[in-house]
UniProtKB/TrEMBL annotation:
GO terms for biological process: nucleosome organization. This is SANT domain-containing protein. Transmembrane segments: none annotated. The keyword Cell inner membrane does not apply. Keywords: Coiled coil, Nucleus. Residues 1-32 have a biased composition (Basic and acidic residues). The keyword Transmembrane helix does not apply. It comes from Lotharella globosa. Residues 1-77, 250-286 are annotated as: Disordered. Residues 33-57, 65-75 have a biased composition (Acidic residues).
């Protein structure tokens, strides 16, 4: 039999049917997982078979013990109980955590056991091209993973900047452009924003606003305490750009210093061995 459906069942055995669940208003649920089992035939052929299936359903059938076991096995292999909402949850979780983070994905698909989500994950990435509009679904996951990658780069940049200073809130330097003002923010306020972004992660604007509200050094600083989350986001975006530029310059300086040290060390090893010059003079006098 074919995984995810019963297309491979022999003709003499009754093909198992996975009935769609009915919603409270009497309409069939949109079954997202059934798209993995779609045989690709047109609707016209389905309509032609409707009459035959109705006639066949009127005839009582009795399955042998072997056929019943096969029927139950096919039901377990398929995803007839997956709805379109389950598929949406699965795609959103894959975009949020990354397609390979199954431990996180399996815990957020509502209405499905974690083991069932893990099994669906394995089948989906083998046969996702059979799903309707799979290009849009994969594109959504790709965009989410791209954002995850960018967030990781931002996190490392902030971490690198902060870790270069023993007391970043007091000593961290910020290379402001000479032709641009600080737009009301002081150096101490900017230092706090960078250090807190490193602690909370870039993008947690509500958490950043709460940290400012609870910071003792800003208890009388109405300017920074009255900034909206949008204003904080704009300021932090600019600070992150400055941090990345400063990191690049710092790394370039470190490489130049390291190269200079290697050059001096290499030059010191080329000194003549003791006694070489004296031996040369004796030989010339002979």
């Amino acid at each position: 039999t074919k995984e995810g459906g019963g297309e491979g069942v022999k003709d003499e055995k009754p093909e198992p049917k996975i009935a769609k669940e009915e919603s409270s208003n009497g309409t069939d649920k949109d079954d997202g997982a059934m798209e993995l089992e779609d045989d690709g035939e047109g609707e016209g052929e389905d309509k032609e078979n409707e009459g035959k299936e109705e006639e066949e359903d009127k005839t009582p059938r009795f399955l042998s013990e072997e056929e019943q076991e096969e029927y139950e096995e096919l039901e377990r292999e398929g995803f007839g109980k997956w709805t379109r909402q389950n598929l949406t949850d699965f795609i959103n979780a894959s975009a949020r955590f990354g397609r390979n983070e199954i431990d996180s994905i399996r815990m957020v698909v509502e209405g499905q056991p974690p083991d069932e989500v893990e099994r669906y994950h394995e089948v989906f990435w083998k046969r996702y091209k059979e799903v309707k509009d799979h290009e849009k679904l994969i594109n959504r996951i790709d965009k989410g993973e791209k954002k995850l990658k960018q967030n990781e780069e931002d996190r490392l940049a902030l971490q690198k900047k902060v870790n270069r200073h023993k007391k970043p809130l007091q000593t961290m330097s910020i290379p402001y452009p000479s032709n641009q003002s600080n737009k009301g923010f002081t150096l101490d306020e900017d230092r706090f924003l960078i250090v807190t972004m490193d602690k909370l992660g870039y993008g947690d604007w509500e958490g950043l606003k709460a940290a400012i509200r609870n910071a003792w050094q800003f208890r009388f600083d109405w300017f920074v305490k009255s900034r909206t989350t949008k204003e904080l986001q704009q300021r932090c975006k600019k600070l992150l750009e400055l941090v990345k530029e400063d990191n690049d310059k710092w790394e370039a300086q470190q490489k130049a210093r390291s190269k200079s040290k290697r050059g001096r060390k290499k030059g010191s090893t080329k000194r003549k061995r003791p006694g070489t010059a004296a031996a040369g003079r004796k030989k010339s006098r002979k």
